[in-house]
Amino acid sequence: MSDHDWQAPGGAPAGGSVPDATGTPYGAAPTPPQAPGAAASAGPYAGMVPPPMPPGAWTPPPKPGLLPLRPLGFGTLLWAPFRVLRRNPAATFGSGLVVQLVSVLATLAVFVPFALFVFSRVENVSSADADAILSGAVGGFLLLMLVPVAISLVASAFLQGVMVVEVASGTLGERLGFGALWRRAAKRIWPLLGWTAIFTGAILLVIAAFVALIVVAAVTSTTALVVAIVVALFAGLGFAALGVWIGTKVSLVPSVIVLERAGIGAAVRRSWQLTNGYFWRTFGTLLLVAVILNIAAQVVVQPVSLIGTIVAAIVDPTASGAYLTITIVTTVVTVILSLLIGAITAVVQAALVAVIYIDLRMRKEGLDLELVRHVELRDAGQPVGDPYGVPESPGAVGAAGPSGS
After folding, report:
1. How far apart are CA 165 and CA 182, in angstroms?
2. CB neighbours of 295 closer than 8 A, spacing ≥ 6?
3. What are phi and psi of 25, to 5 degrees?
4. Segment holding 193, helix H or strand E
5. pLDDT single digits (tens) 141-177
6. Where is the sequence biased in composition, kind Low complexity (predicted)?
7. How do the domains of the chain map onto residue ranges?
8. pTM higher than 0.85 for the full model?
9. Which residues, 6 or more positions from 346, have their beta carbon under 8 angstroms from its beta carbon?
């Protein structure tokens, strides 16, 4: 056999090249992959496309609006109510500002005329009658306090309903205007008012009981007064802890009243069941947001008041006309800032309760699946119902979730 008849293993002639698995001859540079749609003559990789995602691969949850349609992490839960304010500021902040203005104007409308009347009477009477008039004025002020308190309760209850509607509709990608939010919330205003009155009345009754205990002890003797103060102090701490626990367990009542159209009793039971196993998460979120808002309010308002006082003292150390002018301007600015921050605080805290409610229903009842189905049907133009309606088996609520109070 001659030398030129020898072949390399594999059948390739000597001096030739054997193709590898891709068809590229050994010793030749491989042809790089080309973009999809390239000509077939560009090489063996031409026309290749990335393989599809394997079944079961992770995909981000849908987020048609305010919240991702999945159980929320703590960070999302914490900052979601602030996004409510940013997403639809005209309707949300406007509602909070209206509530604050109504409360302030109601207080001024009640107390200013009465104060002017009392001062005018005191100036025109003798010193002997002045004490009686002042005593009556104190009682009158205490009675008049009920008017702004009642108005504030009504405004607060209504704002809770408005923010529940905003969070629920925003989660579905809807953006309602000021009037639309108020009209939807107004449909459930009476149960909201009833719940707010019951909750506030229970707190006032406890406070009144402690005050009555101290007053009776003060009339009896000094020793009884000291004992009553000590008892009230320790009992007050116990009632405060109990109040925090109960308040957290029933914190979702406004959301249940508005979205599930439940009565007060049914809403209390429902809120109690939804928070089973998630007490500390709910309490911690409510507390942390309240602390953040309070610190922010102090950081904004207190420096303005302090700077105004310092400037007034420097400009007019004798406290004459300039001092009074600067003090009045500082007071007005402080009141305006307090109104604005109060509106933001009221909106964020009311929205937080609604966000917690939706999160707990997604965790315990699969509400996220119902919301996804609702959005898909709605976008496809098919008729849809209310995805926040009462679940078919509310008795099953609380069966899942971690153990805890």
Report:
1. 9
2. none
3. -60, 145
4. helix 189-220
5. 777 777 777 777 788 888 999 999 999 999 998 888 8
6. 389-405
7. 74-187+278-373
8. no
9. 96, 99, 100, 156, 159
